[in-house]
Every structure is written in structure tokens, then in C-alpha cells.
């Protein structure tokens, strides 16, 4: 439940938040440096943390349904899966308002933007890598993988890298 940060690889570690058990995912808003973190399995909340460690953590929302591997979009909104609610959502960090983009997942574990109006989502239960169109909410299966998917990243060339916690593996997927 403690978050430590350092300003450079050689810099000292400092505590910026504590007493937040179950912190599981975090991301920076690259436009303004705001840092967001979620409690997922030992709590259920979205927080804004002060990277300088001067301000107390700001609670944005509680009882979301397990906002797991999320990403802050270029619009400042938070995009991610709700592990316990079968959904992929957009959360406004200013007020915690949740917009469901698609609710047809079994256990969505992580979501990352592709920079083209889409959100890649992995479903840990089904093993599906899907793309959800942010504007319409339409879900398209990209690739059937093994179950126990844990996280993903979208490279600048469009390759989607997916990690599997059961196989201790990373797969590269060309969505085309």
C-alpha cells in the first residue's frame, strides 16, 4: 500500500503515498504530469497521487468494479477495464464519472490506446485480444490467445505485446 518514486535512475527513492493496500495499476497524464493509481484486489478505488509527495492522495472514485490495467489518454480521460464488471470504461479524473464503452467481456484485465481511436483490451478469462472503437463501443476480436492474460502494450509501429501470467510469456501480435 506504499508508493515510492524517484526523479531519475540515480535519484533517491521517496514515499509519495501510503496506507493504500492493493495498489495495482498506475499511469501519468503526459500532458500535465498528474499521476493516477488504482486499488483493485485489496480495495476498489481510483486515486490521484502527488508525484512530489507534498499533497495527500485525492480520492477520485470508489467501488468502480476493479479498474485494473488502465491508460490515461491524450484527452486526459482514463481508459481501462473493470475486472469485476465485464466492462471497458472511460473515467473522467476530474469528477469520477464513468462511461461504459463496452460491457461484453468476461474478465477484462488491461486496456491500452492505439492512438487511432481504438482501445486494445485483453480478457484474462477468454484469452481474447480485442479492439474496442472508443466512439462506437464496437468490439472486434483481433487474436485468440491463451487465457491468463495479464497486461499489454502497444508499440509505435502498432504491434501489440501481451503478457501471460500463467505461461510467463510475452506474445507480439500484429493487429493487421
Q: Strand-residue fraction?
A: over 45%
What percent of the residues sit in helical stretches (DSSP H or I)? Answer: under 10%
Supply Rg. Answer: 16 Å
User: H/E element string?
Assistant: EEEEEEEEEEEEEEEEE
The largest beta-sheet arranges its strands as 3-4-5-6
State the secondary-structure class: mainly beta
Low-confidence stretches: none
Query: What is the mean pLDDT?
Result: 95
Count of strand segments = 17
Number of helices: 0
Q: What overall geometry do the principal axes of the alpha carbons give?
A: globular
What's the N-to-C terminus distance?
40 Å
Largest sheet: 4 strands, antiparallel
How are the SSEs ordered, and which strands pair?
Blueprint: E1 3-5, E2 14-17, E3 23-28, E4 35-39, E5 45-49, E6 58-62, E7 71-72, E8 78-82, E9 87-91, E10 98-102, E11 108-113, E12 118-123, E13 128-133, E14 139-144, E15 149-154, E16 160-164, E17 169-173
Antiparallel strand pairs: 1-2, 3-4, 4-5, 5-6, 7-8, 8-9, 9-10, 11-12, 12-13, 13-14, 15-16, 16-17
Task: Please tell me about this protein's structure.
- It is a single chain.
- The protein has 176 residues and is mostly beta strands.
- The protein is built from no helices and 17 strands.
- It has strands at residues 3-5, 14-17, 23-28, 35-39, 45-49, 58-62, 71-72, 78-82, 87-91, 98-102, 108-113, 118-123, 128-133, 139-144, 149-154, 160-164, 169-173.
- The strands form five sheets. It has a four-stranded antiparallel beta sheet with strand order 3-4-5-6, with no helix packed on it. It has a four-stranded antiparallel beta sheet with strand order 7-8-9-10, with no helix packed on it.
- A hairpin with a 5-residue loop joins strand 4 (35-39) and strand 5 (45-49).
- The chain is globular, with a radius of gyration of 16 Å.
